[in-house]
Design brief:
Elements (H helix, E strand, L loop, with lengths): L2 H11 L4 E2 L10 E3 L12 H6 L4 E4 L12 E4 L3 H13 L7 E6 L4 H14 L4 E4 L3 E4 L2 E4 L7 H13 L4 E5 L2 H5 L10 E4 L7 H4 L2 H13 L7 E5 L3 H9 L4 E4 L11 E9 L2 E8 L2 E7 L4 H16 L21 E2 L7 E5 L4 H12 L6 E5 L9 H12 L2 E4 L9 H8 L9 E3 L3 H11 L5 E5 L6 E4 L2 E4 L2 H9 L1
Helix pairs in contact: 1-3, 3-5, 4-10, 11-12, 12-13, 14-15
Family: Belongs to the MurCDEF family. MurE subfamily.
Pfam families: Mur_ligase, Mur_ligase_C, Mur_ligase_M
Enzyme class: ligase
Length: 479
Amino acid sequence: MNSTFNELVSAVAAGLMVRSDSRRVRSGEVFVAVPGVGVDGAAFISDALERGAAWVVGLPGTRLPEGANARLVEHENPRVALGELAAAYFKTAEHGQKLVGVTGTNGKTTITYLMEHVLTAAGRKVGVIGTVNYRWPGFVLDASMTTPDCWQLHEIMANMAAAGVDTVVMEVSSHALDQDRVAGLAFDVAVLTNVTQDHLDYHKTMDAYFNAKARLFCDLPRRNKAGIVNVDDAYGRILLERCPQCTGYGLYYPATGGNGGLWGDIVSSSSRGLHLAMKYGDQRWELRSSLIGKHNASNLLAAQGAALALGVKPKELKSLEDFHGVPGRLERIPNAGGLDVFVDYAHTPDALENVLSCVGELDFRRLFVVFGCGGNRDRTKRPLMGEAVARYADVAILTSDNPRNEEPLAIMADVRPGLARCAHVIEDSDRRTAIAAALAEMRKGDVLVIAGKGHETYQEIRGERHPFSDAEVVREILG
């Protein structure tokens, strides 16, 4: 770190404001020219200077306009610089909070909810940053993205610290890791759930996607953090080879790593829930949960592994028996018709496979599935999602998800080849009408899974978010 940047850090620690949006710059403040995914912050240096920026942080080779009355600080990675400045401004390292990061394609939200539950029962004051919302005791803010931008992230943690929060559990997306949105944070525990196909529109390859997630374990500060890694997942086993100090957890593959790993056995699984038996070193314990399915057995293991890393005792994990679910994650929707209807966030081939195989093993007569695929995202996963539905559904209802700026019918056409082996397919691009069609076809003993949007309360069409909730639509139709 050069002396000029050290000087800037000291000034920011004393209260100098930092901006990464030139439109918000005020006289005397700092502007960080962050290289964006679509737009380079360096293009807005002149605007920031016109608004009175006294400091500019940019990549090596950055030049200020002739006559500019500001100090230039060159930094090899302005994104990381923003994190370091945010940590200085908000005194992040002084809060003394324990920080847990959960990454992976599926299961992040469920695991953060489980951890919030078990840690609260153990006497911790917990804050959660994730897909559904950012929350701590007495405060809830709807989430705009899974992992907030860097400055907002440090600000949220400072607000949590002011409210007495001693442990923060956060979902860490691959985008956030790739874009250094968690710069300036020192994680105490990192969790990997799994790595399956998603976000290839951004990362391009599975290896790049995995390597982004691996940064949480390998590259970020505090390399001696505890790592909790799913060894039932092939990429999890690769990560454990890279980071042998991590603890593996698994239901099927021999768990390895710290203390011999955390091993779980499914004693029973039914529509009433799970009965699990755990082994960790020479410790043994059992747990019953109302959550259903093998994927939730894995989620329960991950949450327990992270809790153990924070010093929670196995006997305290019993509090998980009082946990009854997560909004939009196989959430049962009670209704006047007495039908078995679940809403789930599954929007990848693997997530659909997990949810539908779980429901398919239960004692329902027919399985109905309403689903679609998001627009402006990885097109290659669309037929794979259709194949996952075709493997389990008696009736598949193909519709829109969040079409964004794509034509819904074109998205559905990409999915259709994957549904070739499904005996009964209904198509309707209007999601509300599609849900109504499924409900009209159902009889007692059938089950409906409405997949893709889960907790979301909007549908994004042509750049606008329109109010829409799968759960509310079910309630409106059935009463």
